[in-house]
Amino acid sequence: MKKMMATLVTVGLAATTWGSVSAKAWTIEPTMPTPISSNGWLHGEDSQLGAFRNQYYRLNAATKATVLTSKIKGRGWIKKSVTLPKGTVITGHRSGNHVMSNVYDYGSVSYGLKRAGLPAKNGANDGYVDFKIAKKRVTKIARPAYALTFGDNQFYRGGVKAIKQLPTRGSRMIKVTSDGYLEDYPYAPRVFTATDEYQGDYTWRIDHAAKPKTSLKITKATVKGANIQLYTKARPSGVTSRRVTKTGRFQYRTTLTNRHRPYQFQDNRYGDDMACASTYSIGKTAFYTVIGEGHN
Q: Which of 79, 170, 255, 258: CA 20 to 30 A from 228?
């Protein structure tokens, strides 16, 4: 992950989803995903050192955070402060007497909480959310039923076929946020050009819309075996859902199924130039989500 951050800082990029940005220094050869043992990955010492294991916290009070958006023109970030309300669920990691945002999961909270921190002009994406919070201001909680143990809770449509097409992303992204929203980010590629004193001229791109097509509060979540069932009041876009009632807060049910078929693939945005993905189905459509990297 240090390699990923260094690459982004060098070229002056920031993005809510690491996979949403592509620069010329990143993998350009076709990716060949290799199936690996789910049990082996889960219990392997090296694999767990590179695992994106989530810890969840609830804010005990309204808390300041910073939204960083990469500039379309010029280098660096646009930084704006936002206030996360008391009770907001976040993902992070302990560092001394603080809880800090995860490098791989800067975009964990919903678009609605980030919106006030997004610039009106010159912003290229939907923004990182960065924070460093005193541990006394948060309470560690059990993983919510809607959330994943590993990864950034971002699902890319296409499953293994989509991994083989990397670094090109040609489909939408579905996000389940730490604060309990189901969001749909359509595929909307944009290419930018810039100049860096180290790399010279380079191009970079963002693959998904900065604003979700829908951002729906998850009103209930249940876990049944490999299935996570998410309930919303309105019909979510971008995924297959089933209407289970005509009134109330739980009208639509969207099912995420863990296929327990992880894959390893080469990607130099990650440690040891390697990433690990877990495959899912949402309805009958294949998706994948990155759950770890090589350890170095």
A: 170
Q: How far apart are CA 42 and CA 119, in angstroms?
A: 40
Alpha carbon distance 78, 127 (integer Å): 9
Local confidence pLDDT in tens for the 296 residues of the chain: 444 433 333 333 333 343 344 333 344 555 788 888 887 777 676 767 667 888 999 999 999 999 988 888 777 788 999 999 999 999 998 889 999 887 666 568 999 999 988 888 877 776 788 999 999 999 999 999 999 888 888 999 999 999 888 877 788 999 999 999 999 999 988 887 776 667 677 777 788 888 899 999 999 999 999 999 999 999 999 999 999 999 999 999 999 999 999 999 887 777 777 888 999 999 989 999 998 887 76
Residue with tokens 């049990």: 39
Q: What is the CA radius of gyration of the chain?
A: 18
In this structure, the strands spanning 214-217 and 285-293 are unpaired
pTM for this one?
A: 0.86
Token pair belonging to 85 = 């309300």
Backbone angles phi, psi at 202, to 5 degrees: -150, 160
For 166, list phi and psi in degrees, rounded to 5: -60, 145
Query: Which single residue is written with the structure tokens 């499953």?
Result: 159
Q: What does the alpha-carbon distance between residue 144 and residue 183 come to, in Å, rounded to a whole number?
A: 17
Burial code of 29-54, b = ≥16 C-beta within 10 A, e = fewer?
eebebeebeeeebeeeeebeebbbeb
DSSP 223: E
Q: Classify 282 as helix, strand or coil.
A: strand
Q: Tell me the C-alpha distance between 75 and 15, whole Å.
A: 14
Q: Is 202 helix (H, G, I), strand (E, B) or coil?
A: strand
